What does this fold into?
Amino acid sequence: MLSTVARYEKGLRTPDDATMVRIYVFTEGEVQPNDFYELPDLRAQRKAA
It folds into this structure.
């Protein structure tokens, strides 16, 4: 049985908004909401355009 944190780590679950704020505060900004999503590097794409 996996804990909720383990599910977050494995990408099986995404925290809700309130939980993301708590994680951000608890980790002093080391873990941010964008860390839970696979996002393209938009800055590199803008520079190439």
